[in-house]
Each structure stands twice: as structure tokens, then as C-alpha cells.
Amino acid sequence: MVFSALSVVLGIMVLVITLDHLGSRRVRSRVRRRAIGLFAEAKSIPVPVGSKYFEYNPVSLETVRLRLKRSRRLSPKGSWYPVEAKLFFVPFPLGGAYYADGTRAPFVSEKEVRWLEGRRAGQERRLLSVFRLPAKKKVSLPLAWWILHAPWYPDLLHHPDLKVELPGPRKYRLTWKEAENWSIDLVADDKGQWTESVLYGFRQKKEEPLLRCRWTDYKDFDSWSIPTGLITQQYDQDSWWTSGHTQVTDWVANEAFAWW
């Protein structure tokens, strides 16, 4: 009986690992194809002559790819779990692909995919690479998610469809033209380095915060100064709680596509 039960358990484990492996290959393949297509069409953003915005990154970006390590939780009292992610971004024509592989528990993985093509964007999460998980209701603004992380690809801020206002010293308000259901505040320090970005959404005609990113640990990559540390917070019941810690392990610009 013991041997029979052990055989069943081992059989289930082998099945789960096999499904996860096959599903992972399929998900990664989709992200790779999308990123390869984006990099093949990438161009520099046409920055207006005489622009005074964001002058501390004078070299044009055409492509950006990042490799990230994260620690994440899904609720204020939830357990932390590790995530490894890859992000591919093209400022013009606007596009991006993001793949994250998290380990929720032993032999239990979670895959997350985000994509961006012009004004169209979406996200998908799968448990064991097979079972689709429901999208989060509070963060249902996929296009805004990409702009919230603009310090990783600063040329995005020159995009002709992005409206930039200056409500205060070293504070910028970003909105996408013809999209009035959200806005982003981006704050810089005296050195011109971004320290915080906050996503706002509207509920019942009232603006309220949804997500906050705090940027730290700036490092120089060729001609760019990029934040390699990120603390992500979510707003819930009138208070902020920390949902993630992210570290950039690699940041590469203007090079051909590679999966690392």
C-alpha cells in the first residue's frame, strides 16, 4: 500500500513538472517572437527641436532589454516568493514584451506575460504554465504599467502621444493622449534622477492612487544613468503596502535581440 501511494505521488509530481516544462516553453516562445518583431522595427523617437525635457539622457534609445530579480507578494500579509523576469522595450514604434517566472511553492510556478503594441496592451498570468489566473482588478491599466516604469527606458518620455506637464519643481505629470482614465506623477531629485512614480486611476469620478514605484541605486550604463533598485507598493484601504522588491541585474540598449 505504501509503495502504491508513493508511486501515485511520484507520478503526479512527474506529470506536474512535465506540464510546467512544456507550458513554459510555449509561453517563452510567444514572448520571444513578439520581442524579436519589436526589435526588428525599432526606430529612434523623433524628439522635438529645442526640447528642454529630460536632457540628462542625450543619446537616443531604439531598444532596451532588462533582466530582473524580484521578491513579490500578493497581499499585505502574504508570503514572499522569488521571481526572475525579462523585459524588452521599444520606445518607437511603441512596443514591449515582459516575461516573469515565479516560484509560488515547491514545484508550483507562476508565469506572467505583459505585452504592448501601440495603444493596445494586455497581461496574462498562468499557474504551472497551464491554468490561467484571473487578472487583478485594481491594476487593469496595462498601458499605464509600461509608462509607470519609464525610468528604465527614459526616451519613452519623448513619445509624441505622451502629454507631459510640470505641476511643480522636478515633478512631472504624464498622461496618454485620448486616455483620461489614469495619470502618472514622476518625481526627480536635484541630479535629474527619478525617485518616485505614482499611478493614479479614477473611481466614481474621484482620482486615487493605485501603484507607486520608488527608484534607487542608480548605475551608469554607457551614456545612461538607470535605477537598478525598485520598491513597488500598492494602495489599499487608504494606506500603502509593499508588494515587491526588484533588482536590475542587466540593462542593455541599442543592441540586437537576445534572450540572455
**Spatial order of the strands in the main sheet?**
6-5-4-3-2-1-13-12-11-10-9-8-7
pLDDT averaged residue by residue: 84
Determine the structural class based on helices, strands and strand pairing. alpha+beta
- N-C termini distance: 47 Å
Please characterize this protein's 3D structure.
It is a single chain. This protein has 260 residues and is α+β, with helices and mostly antiparallel strands. The chain has one domain: Beta Barrel (Lipocalin), CATH 2.40.128.720. A 13-stranded antiparallel sheet has the order 6-5-4-3-2-1-13-12-11-10-9-8-7, with helices on both faces. A hairpin with a 2-residue loop joins strand 4 and strand 5. It is globular and about 70 Å long. The protein starts with a helix and ends in a 7-residue tail after the last strand.
What can be said about this structure in brief?
The protein is an alpha+beta fold and 260 residues long. Helix content is 18%, strand content 49%. The protein has 2 helices and 13 strands; from the N terminus they run H-E-E-E-E-E-E-H-E-E-E-E-E-E-E.
Attribute tags:
260 residues; alpha+beta; Lipocalin; 13-stranded antiparallel sheet; 2 helices; 13 strands; 18% helix; 49% strand
Write the layout of secondary structure elements.
Elements: H1 2-41, E1 64-72, E2 81-90, E3 95-105, E4 108-117, E5 120-127, E6 131-133, H2 142-148, E7 162-168, E8 171-176, E9 179-188, E10 194-203, E11 206-221, E12 224-236, E13 239-253
Antiparallel strand pairs: 1-2, 1-13, 2-3, 3-4, 4-5, 5-6, 7-8, 8-9, 9-10, 10-11, 11-12, 12-13
